[in-house]
Amino acid sequence: MKQILLLFVFFATGCPMQGVQPVKVEGVAMLPALKEGDRIFIDRQFEKLERGDIVVFYAPFDQSKSYIKRIVGLPGETVEVREGKVFVNGTMLDEPYVEAQYNQSMRSLASIQLTSINYFVMGDNRDNSADSRIWGPLKKELIYGKYTRKYYSAQ
Question: Which helix (H) or strand (E) holds 2?
Answer without folding.
Answer: helix 2-12
